[in-house]
Design brief:
- A three-stranded antiparallel beta sheet has the order 1-3-2.
- It is built from 16 helices and three strands.
- The protein is mostly helical.
- The chain is extended and about 85 Å long.
C-alpha cells in the first residue's frame, strides 16, 4: 500500500504541486450571480495574485491574463467589464509606461468583495481551529493550580528554570497566575525584588501559595537576580504600546492614482520628488489627520493650482518604497522634457 500511495498521481498532485483554495462564500456568491466561467477564471487569477502580494492588488498584462486563463483578449475584456459592474474588481490606469512610449503601463487591478456578501458574511460557518496547546503545559499548569500540599520548609531556590519547556505565552500565563495569588505585602516584596534583582521573598503566614508554588517563585527570582530582565508578569499592557499610532501606508492602487495625476498635471519640478513629498505629507505629515482619499485630493488640488510646496518638517533624506513609481516618474519627466524641447 505504501508503494501504491507513493506513486499515486493524486498524492503527487496534492503534496508537490501548487493548488489554490477558494473561499466558499465568495465562490457560492459567484455561482448565484451566474458569472460566466471565463469571468471566474480572470477573477480568481487576480485574487490569487493579490493574496500572494498581501495587498489584494495585481499588475498582470491583458495578453498574459488571456494566455494564463486560456482565453482570447476580447473575452478577457468582457470579463473585466462584467466584474467591474458587479463590484468584484477595481482597475486603475497608472499612466504612460516610459519604457514603451507607444504602450500604456500595466493597469493595476484590485479585487474586492460585494457589499451584499460582506453584510451576510456572518451567516457562513467558520472553520474549526483546534488550539495547539501541548499536553505537558496543561499538566504543569494544572499541577501549579491544584497542588494543595501544606508548606513545611522552603529551602534555597534551585538554579533551574521553574518554567522550563514552556513557550513565551505559556510562561506568561503560569507566572501571571502565581502573581495573582500574592497578597498586597507579597506583591510589594515581589516588585522590589524584580527592581533590585534580589532573590529573597518572605511569604505571609496565611499565604495562598503551596510549597511547590513558593519554590517556583523563588526559583524565578533567583534567575532574575543572576541576569536582570524585564518583569513578564504584568497582565496589563503598557500604555505606550496601546497609544502608539499606526503609521498610515498608501496602497499600490492609491500610489498609481497619484502617479497618474502628477503625470497629467505636468509639474515643473521632478515628478518623483513631488510624489515622495505627497506620500510623506499624506502618511506622516500635515495631511495625515485627514482620511486617505480626502488627503490625496487636497494634495492634488494644490498641485493643480501650482500651490504645492515641499513640506516644512519633511526629513531631507526621507525615503519610502514606492515600487516602480520613482523610476516611471523620472523617465516620464525626461520624456516630457525632450518632447517640449
Amino acid at each position: 500500500m505504501s508503494k501504491e500511495s507513493a506513486c499515486d498521481p493524486r498524492d503527487v498532485l496534492t503534496r508537490q504541486k501548487y493548488f489554490s483554495l477558494r473561499p466558499r462564500p465568495l465562490e457560492q456568491w459567484l455561482w448565484k450571480q451566474g458569472v460566466p466561467a471565463s469571468a471566474e477564471r480572470v477573477f480568481w487569477l487576480h485574487w490569487q495574485e493579490g493574496m500572494i502580494r498581501r495587498d489584494w492588488c495585481s499588475e498582470i498584462g491583458l495578453r498574459r491574463v488571456a494566455t494564463h486563463c486560456d482565453l482570447d483578449v476580447s473575452s478577457v475584456t468582457r470579463a473585466y467589464q462584467l466584474l467591474t459592474k458587479l463590484g468584484l474588481i477595481r482597475r486603475q490606469d497608472p499612466g504612460r509606461d516610459p519604457a514603451r512610449p507607444f504602450e500604456r503601463a500595466v493597469t493595476i487591478t484590485e479585487v474586492r468583495m460585494p457589499l451584499e456578501l460582506v453584510q451576510g458574511l456572518n451567516r457562513y460557518p467558520d472553520r474549526a481551529r483546534p488550539e495547539q496547546v501541548p499536553a505537558s503545559s496543561n499538566a504543569v499548569a494544572t499541577t501549579a493550580m491544584e497542588d494543595t500540599e501544606p508548606l513545611k520548609s522552603v529551602g534555597p531556590a534551585a538554579s533551574r528554570d521553574p518554567f522550563e519547556g514552556m513557550c513565551g505565552r505559556e510562561r506568561m500565563r503560569a507566572l501571571t497566575h502565581l502573581v495573582n495569588l500574592m497578597s498586597a505585602a507579597e506583591r510589594r516584596q515581589y516588585d522590589d525584588a524584580l527592581r533590585t534583582c534580589d532573590s529573597k521573598l518572605t511569604f505571609d503566614a496565611d499565604t495562598k501559595f503551596t510549597a511547590t508554588q513558593q519554590e517556583k517563585v523563588l526559583q524565578f527570582l533567583a534567575i532574575v537576580g543572576r541576569k536582570p530582565m524585564m518583569p513578564i508578569a504584568s497582565a496589563a499592557p503598557s500604555l505606550a504600546t496601546e497609544r502608539s499610532p499606526k503609521t498610515r501606508r498608501l496602497s499600490v492602487f492609491e500610489l498609481a492614482r497619484i502617479r497618474r495625476a502628477i503625470q497629467q498635471e505636468r509639474v515643473q519640478r521632478d515628478s518623483a520628488e513631488v510624489l515622495r513629498e505627497v506620500v510623506w505629507s499624506v502618511e506622516e505629515g500635515a495631511l495625515s489627520r485627514f482620511a486617505s482619499l480626502h488627503a490625496v485630493r487636497i494634495a492634488l488640488k494644490k498641485i493643480r493650482e501650482d500651490a504645492w510646496t515641499r513640506p516644512n518638517k519633511m526629513p531631507p533624506n526621507w525615503s519610502r518604497a514606492l515600487g516602480n513609481a520613482d523610476a516611471h516618474l523620472r523617465e516620464s519627466a525626461q520624456v516630457d522634457a525632450c518632447s517640449t524641447a
